[in-house]
Amino acid sequence: MTEMVFGAVSAKSGEPIISHWWRTVDRVSLFAVLLLFAIGVLLGLAASPPLAERNGLGAFHYVNRQMVFGTAALAGMIFLSMQTPTTVRRLAVVGFIAVFFAIVMLPFLGTDYGKGAVRWYSLGFISLQPSEFVKPTFVLFSAWLMSASVDLDGPPGRLMSFFVAVALTLLLALQPDFGQAALVLASWILMYFIAGAPMVLLILLAIGIAAASTFAYNNSEHVARRIDGFLNPEIDPTSQMGFASNAIQEGGVFGVGVGEG
Q: What pLDDT is attached to residue 9?
């Protein structure tokens, strides 16, 4: 996977996979990911014990869950970084098709957990949000289509990726999940711009997005509430901004200590 960014690096004859990976991996990015994971665990130690106790769970229940899922995610990241670009592309294509199908089936098999948006699958011991998995697979899938379009006798990959992006955006907006929908569309536009999109098309897309945003604001109470809440000078204490503001006010720069959050 590192070869996608830094170019192909030939392996030495008989060189072990681990040795080749360590010699070619982007160590700065790897260190940054590990640092973010460590900070997340530290913040979990500070903030989650009171919540766990209120819910009748062990003090470090959420910290342990973070460690388990975080370790699994790091293992997956390292495993993928050891694969060739071809293998990663194939995994991304298969993964995107599976996740896209999962999003299509959400209205029939998903749940909203009382939040008004059907975004999750409940598996009993865990819940899954397909839109979280669709982002990396969509980017790789679209990049593959765009690159294939410049091959001799290649498919119309840019046009195909456009229809895929529109279909995915509409599915996410219907949940409704306008944040993820905007993120997917913005990712596709950025990739298409780098791939050489004509400026006229980008301007038309910008006009279309502005029109769609205006329509959503005027016809969706959910969107209007989010935007009005962000622009309102008085912060709603029950909103995410309210919780964040309260945490900063009470915790200061260095917080209030482990288990006291």
A: 55
CA distance 155 to 147: 10
Residue 64: which domain range?
A: 1-83
Q: What b/e readout covers 228-259, taking b as 16+ CB neighbours within 10 angstroms?
A: eeeeeeebeeeeeeeeeeeeeeeeeeeeeeee
- Residue at 28: amino acid letter: V
Tell me which H or E stretch contains 128.
strand 127-128
φ/ψ of 218, rounded to 5, equals: -80, -15
Q: How far apart (Å, rounded) are the C-alpha atoms in residues 139 and 142?
A: 5
Count the Cβ atoms, other than its own, within 10 Å of residue 215: 11
88: tokens are 């990663």
Question: Within a domain: residue 94?
Answer: yes
Same domain, 101 and 192: yes
Q: How many domains does the chain have?
A: 2
For residue 64, give both structure tokens.
């342990």
Structure confidence at residue 241 (pLDDT): 76
DSSP 67: H
Is 230 a domain residue? no
Asked if the model's pLDDT at residue 154 lies above 70, the reply is: yes
Residue with the bigger pLDDT between 251 and 40: it is: 40
CA distance 245 to 26: 36
Over residues 185-236, the pLDDT tens digits come to 889 989 988 888 788 888 888 898 888 888 888 887 777 877 877 777 777 7
Contact 181, 129 (CB under 8 A): no
pLDDT band at 87; cut points 50, 70, 90:
very high
The overall average pLDDT reported for the chain is: 84
